[in-house]
Amino acid sequence: MRSFDELVDEAASVSVDGWDFSWLDGRASEQRPSWGYQRLLGERLRNVQSVVDVQTGGGEVLAGVPVLPPLTVATESWPPNLEKAAALLEPRGATVVADSDEPPLPFQDNVFEMVVSRHPVTVWWDEIARVLQPGGSYLSQQVGPWSVFELVEYLLGPQPPEVRNSRHPDRAKAEAEQAGLEVVDLRFEELRTEFHDIGAVIYFLRKVIWMVPGFTVDEYLPRLRELHEELRKGPFVATTTRYLIEARKR
């Protein structure tokens, strides 16, 4: 087996740009939601003329859709991801826009038939409602409550209920309705995630920055060493939660 130091050095130096998790192949696994977000997105986009993908990351999800609408726009705030998204999406006729991920969205009212987003960090419901055309819809797969909290609490200790439930789908539904949208579909699933080595854990926490805010290897080194020893005996198992929400503008 590779040493703790070797695994840490590798995972701490590898690029975490974009939203491609293929570096984790064979080192971690995550059960996928039954609805198949990218496939579902592709089906919906065949039937519209305009879409904006908010917080597109490196553009990987949108780039995997077979047919893009004539007006396709993606927003992103992190410069390395902007470059990756532009390289993937602009050759297909999409426009990639730098955005601060703070309201307002840089678009006029009633522009898009669809607003989409996979795993947004924050959702500005009033802005989504504003840029949607009447009858248009928002389709999003989001990280749910207490997702991978076995790992979060391994490092941070027990979290209060308001933190564990901060991404609850019921809250999203209420906020969407408050913004004037009608929620027409809401699905929630608990899924199994496994980490097989400490490098996978470090890579995941560097990439998914909201799990352990401000995570650094140095700060959590003693706890990471303990987890490394546990991983020598078998995978670290966590529960991932995901929900799909679709809301329509009246």
From TrEMBL:
Keywords, ordered alphabetically: Methyltransferase, Transferase
GO molecular function, a single term: S-adenosylmethionine-dependent methyltransferase activity
GO biological process: methylation
Superkingdom of source: Bacteria
Entry-linked InterPro entries: 23S_rRNA_MeTrnsfrase_RlmA, Methyltransf_11, SAM-dependent_MTases_sf
SUPFAM superfamilies according to UniProt: S-adenosyl-L-methionine-dependent methyltransferases (SSF53335)
Record-annotated Methyltransferase type domain positions: 53-138
UniProt name for this protein: Methyltransferase family protein
Organism of provenance: Amycolatopsis echigonensis
Taxonomic lineage: Bacteria, Bacillati, Actinomycetota, Actinomycetes, Pseudonocardiales
